[in-house]
Amino acid sequence: MLTYIYGKNHLKLWRILSGVMGVNRIRRTCAMNQKITIRDVAEKAGVSISSVHLALNGKKGVGEETRQHIQEVADQLGYRPNVLASSLKRKPRTIVIALPSEHGSNRYFYPPIWKGIHDFMEQQPDAANYIELPYSDDNELDVKSELKERIANRQIEGLLTVGHIDLLDDDDWQRMERNGVAVTFINSERRGTKYLTCVEPYYDVIGRTMAELMTSRTTSYGSFFLCAGNPKYLSHSMVVRGFDAYLEENHLQNLVYKDFSWTMDEINYIHILRELMRPDIAACGAVFSQGTILLGRALEESGKKDKLYAVGSDISKETIERLNAGVINNVIQKNPYAQGLMGLRSLVDYFNGTTPPEKIYVGADVVFKSNLAMYEHGTSGVMLM
Which of 53, 286, 298, 320 lies in disulfide reach of 227, CB 3.0 to 4.6 Å? Predict the structure, then answer.
């Protein structure tokens, strides 16, 4: 779990830096602009929105020093929750959000997902008791332990996660089903698991689009190289399936070399670099964000960035740079912002009496250098680190 710890020295320094003049300036600025939101408090305090929600509502999940720190920030900013609206609502359900964090190699895909989630939480801060559990290699065991404990103690009523999550075993999923926990998957489902809904793009169509882009700009006898990702991830394998289906249905005989590595270590990079050096390769693509980063690097270092047509996946700071430089010609954007926002909304709506469809599909777009500005920020789904 992402935890923020404030020592005495930190709080003392914060109080000094937030003196009377600074506080008055903050208040004047806020008064001139707009109503203070829970996000404003979170950003100023340096904590998550869910931590602010827990602290200001007297709930467990934050330390006492952190709670006091958040309260001080809220008071100084003049934040006032809607007490009347809160009093009219029934006890909020506990929704746990267990997703890869925004950092490390996850930064190429997950920041806009978390942006969508946080935007929804800001719109409806009291709609649920939100528990954020972002995980990475550094804290995976801690998050796994907390998640299992919540399931065992029935401290979870809704779960927002990804289909390829490996923190839970079959017993955990079965226990959640018995306890009536509503599960929403984003990005892809987990096969064999009962769930409320899954928010994802049309992966088959994405694969077909990638194949059409590559074949329309190469000769009929040129070969393709594809960073195909993890065959166990539906978000990867279904794109590859759509890619192959397009070639078969259009009677195209192009040879396709596929690399099924999905981590960003140097061994995988070297293998991709070697594949690109094949003399018959005419175009290349990557079905996932990390593969796009490795592919872009390999195109630069192999000297083939102007010789091979390249199609990547997912917008990040690095892919934007390579689109602008002409290293990558197109990127297929899977609208992760909408996946995050609509995923959380589906759970809140369900607890308010509206059952979502089994699948909620979000759109995917082909990004060129010419229309890149539409996807660099905002509700298109891109929020750069």
Answer: 286
